[in-house]
Amino acid sequence: MIEVKNLSKNFNGFTVLKDINFTIEKGEIFAYLGPNGAGKSTTVNILVTLLKPTNGRVKISGYDVTKNGMESRRIIGFVQEDFGLYPYLTVFQNLDFVGCLYHIEKKQRREKINDLLIFFDLWNERMIPASSLSKGMKQKLCLARALIHDPKILFLDEPTSGLDPLMSKEVLNLILKLKTEEKTIFMTTHLLSRAEKVCDSIALLNKGKILCIGKLTEIKTKLKSSSLEDVYFEVIGEAHG
Ligand SMILES: Nc1ncnc2c1ncn2[C@@H]1O[C@H](COP(=O)(O)OP(=O)(O)O)[C@@H](O)[C@H]1O
Ligand SMILES: [Mg+2]
Predict the structure, then answer these.
(1) 10 CA to middle of ligand 1, Å?
(2) Do 113 and 171 fall within a single domain?
(3) Of these four, 70, 176, 219, 234, which has the most CB atoms within 10 Å of its CB?
């Protein structure tokens, strides 16, 4: 579903990503982990066609993101850290507006929005402006909005950032629930113990390089680690030392 080959990115001669390679299968939840400044968001931004790679190739469901940006964009949903909601529009209107941008017909749009409002438990808030939602509700609305066109792949850049533990748990449970809908999910997060409960595979990134990648269960066995947190400190700690 996602294929990244020899990807690198420079900003003004400064290398931020070096020779990144990975493949993500359909229906997989992939956690892209690493310290602040490792290059996670840069990678996501390239994958969602917001940034151009300096070198290498990215394919989304077979489409090259640099050559077939439009086709790639149609099959992806993207949630960023800063919400980017329309504050004066209601919850319903935020979803309806984006549904219109994707040219979804009115009847189908209504049905999809109702489903999403129920799925994300935002039904009672549907008539209130986005600006008066709590942080957790805003994040759920962002997730709902990213799903309006029924994308096959969802990119989530720190979907639980700034949320309290209960809300983070709820958001991650919703992500897990999306797995049953065959969505492929690429996420970055700092919540290792929660990520452990939802992801199938991981990549650990430090200073623009992938240090460790694969199925979480296999990595844990290989490193004789009992948790993702142990894996993280073992691998990233070594890189620092
Ligand atoms: N537009 C940009 N111009 C120059 N440097 C950037 C730009 N975007 C990110 N960087 C740098 O790239 C590195 C990786 O950033 P980022 O991908 O945001 O890391 P992460 O999401 O893992 O915290 C950082 O050193 C950051 O300062
Ligand atoms: Mg980031």
Answers:
(1) 10
(2) no
(3) 219
Residues facing residue 157 across a β-bridge:
188
Domain housing 57: 2-75+152-240
Nearest to 25 by CA among 156, 184, 179, 214: 184
Planar angle of CA 144, 146, 151, nearest 5 degrees? 115
Mutating to test ligand 1, I would choose from 9, 14, 15, 16 the residue with most ligand atoms within 8 A of its C-beta, which is 16
C-beta of 52 in contact with ligand 1 (< 6 A): no
Task: Tell me the pLDDT tens digit for each residue of 133-169.
Answer: 998 899 899 999 999 999 999 999 998 888 888 888 8
Per the CB < 8 A criterion, the answer to whether 73 and 140 are in contact is: no
Rounded average pLDDT over 209-227: 95
Tell me how far CA of residue 33 lies from CA of 133, 158, 188, 206, in angstroms.
29, 10, 6, 9
Does some domain include residue 80?
no
Q: What is the CATH number of the domain that holds 161?
A: 3.40.50.300
Atom of ligand 1 nearest to the CA of 39: 17
Beta carbons within 8 Å of 51's beta carbon, 6+ residues apart: 9, 42, 45
Residues 156 and 236 occupy one common structural domain: yes
pLDDT in tens, 96-110: 999 999 999 999 999
* Radius of gyration of the chain, Cα coordinates, nearest whole angstrom: 18
